[in-house]
Write a structure and sequence with these properties.
The protein is α/β, with parallel strands linked by helices and 382 residues long. It has helices spanning 65-73, 87-98, 112-118, 126-131, 146-152, 172-181, 220-234, 245-268, 279-292, 296-304, 309-339, 341-345, and strands at 3-5, 11-13, 22-28, 31-37, 79-83, 102-106, 121-122, 136-139, 163-166, 187-193, 208-215, 239-242. The strands form three sheets. An eight-stranded mixed beta sheet has the order 7-6-5-8-9-10-11-12, with helices on both faces. The protein has a two-stranded antiparallel sheet with strand order 1-2. The chain has a two-stranded antiparallel ribbon with strand order 3-4. It is elongated, with a radius of gyration of 38 Å.
Length: 382
């Protein structure tokens, strides 16, 4: 081995030196002097201590056991398996990849190309997926297929305390399925990002993200993992809302389900943009655009798997009927007045009101004959 020693105390390898030659290079001003000589041992270089500065006191060392353990327990990035790699699954996966997390994907359809193009790996076989030992299994399947999909996962191949997360638009339903099908050593976090590929395409800033820590183990690393997952959304600027699943469903039926229903009703009207769109009309067109891009499965899931949705649908029906009655009542009153204006003036238009139905020959009651012939119809005195 040959070295070059410079007067400024830098030790350099000298490739020109032979094994028998030790080359020492001294620098003095502009002149360099090579001293090639047979010498054993090599003279010790005089190193000036001020050249060696301590730059980092906490730099990690390969033998730093504490640090290595910490990295194993608290890796700064998660390995997330997205199960259900459709519209919403891919939308979320892009953000995970962008934030540096490892994304594994699985779906009944082959999305290898889509996964590859965003930097994720696709596993058509759920056994292969689970053998990758992801930190998080994220269920992004349609609401109606959630149970069979969960049952089809070979969860025995996962790490014992894997975190299960769902993003379904209803919350009590997946919570109950998780609690029913997952052994107690798996953690459960139920979430609902209250935006989609359309409404969240530009930014997630200020958009609500609802979550319920249904079952998170007490171990520090498990708490940390759930927090790390939530931090994906918090760091994108989402408004984080911790809420019980049941409370979410109550609010969502009155807001989200109604929104989707109105969007779908308006879609059936095939609204078109006009040269004189008002701001309100633009809002309706946007609503149609936002809701029509979601699958019918999603909408059906909002109805079928939220126990509060039926009541909201009935209320909507009643509200529409009431509104129609109000309109037609007004219209009827106006028409009647116009039609019978003359008789009204003569004071003969007081319509007799039906007080009770006449007996129908001993068989219950029948509708009365027209009012002019009826003896039972009597004018009511107001
Ligand atoms: P979706 O129609 O609700 O779900 C599509 C996903 O479900 C696809 O990954 C599809 O897999 C899978 N799937 C459907 N039927 C299946 C079956 N029988 N077996 C196995 N997999 C099946 O549409 P989405 O918009 O992607 O929503 C996914 C989830 O995210 C839903 O639970 C939804 O409530 C929730 N979410 C959606 C939004 C949104 O704006 N879209 C927002 C928040 C939450 P393949 O593609 O492989 O067929």
């Amino acid at each position: 081995m040959a070295y070059t020693v410079m007067s400024n105390a830098k030790l350099q390898f000298n490739p020109t030196a032979t094994s028998k030659t030790r080359s020492i290079l001294f620098s003095s001003g502009d002149h360099l002097t090579h001293l090639n000589r047979f010498c054993t041992p090599l003279p010790k270089p005089v190193l000036r201590p001020r050249r060696f500065r301590i730059r980092a006191t906490e730099a990690s060392q390969p033998h730093d056991y504490k640090l290595r353990l910490n990295n194993v327990l608290h890796p700064s990035k998660l390995k997330i398996a997205v199960v259900g790699f459709g519209n919403f699954g891919q939308f979320l996966a892009k953000a995970f990849v962008r934030q540096g997390h490892t994304v594994l994907a699985h779906s009944r359809t082959d999305y290898s190309l889509e996964a590859h193009s965003m930097g994720a790996s696709f596993f058509p076989d759920p056994h292969d997926l689970c053998e990758q030992h992801p930190d998080v299994i994220l269920l992004c399947t349609s609401i109606i297929s959630t149970e069979p999909v969960l049952r089809s996962l070979p969860i025995q191949r996962l790490k014992r305390n894997t975190l299960f997360v769902d993003v379904l638009s209803v919350k009590e339903f997946p919570k109950n399925i998780f609690l029913q099908l997952l052994p107690p050593h798996f953690d459960i976090l139920c979430t609902h990002p209250m935006f989609g590929p359309e409404s969240g395409k530009d930014t997630w800033k200020g958009l609500p993200f609802v979550f319920d820590k249904v079952r998170i183990g007490e171990d520090g690393s498990r708490i940390w993992r759930a927090e790390k997952f939530l931090d994906i959304f918090a760091s994108e600027g989402c408004r984080m809302v911790e809420m019980k699943c049941s409370e979410h469903d109550r609010h969502a039926a009155g807001s989200q389900f109604i929104t989707h229903t109105m969007g779908r009703v308006l879609e059936k009207l095939q609204l078109e943009t006009t040269p004189i769109n008002t701001k309100g009309y633009e809002t309706l067109l946007n609503l149609v655009e936002n809701t029509a891009s979601d699958s019918f499965d999603l909408y059906y899931g909002l109805f079928m798997y939220n126990k509060n949705a039926m009541e909201q649908l009935e209320r909507l029906d009643l509200a529409f009927e009431a509104l129609k009655n109000e309109l037609f009542g007004h219209l009827h009153e106006k028409l009647r007045k116009q039609l019978f204006l003359k008789r009204d003036r003569e004071g003969s238009m007081e319509r007799p009101k039906l007080s009770k139905l006449p007996p129908n020959k001993g068989k219950g009651y029948a509708l009365p004959p027209p009012s002019s012939n009826s003896e039972i119809l009597q004018p009511q005195n107001h």
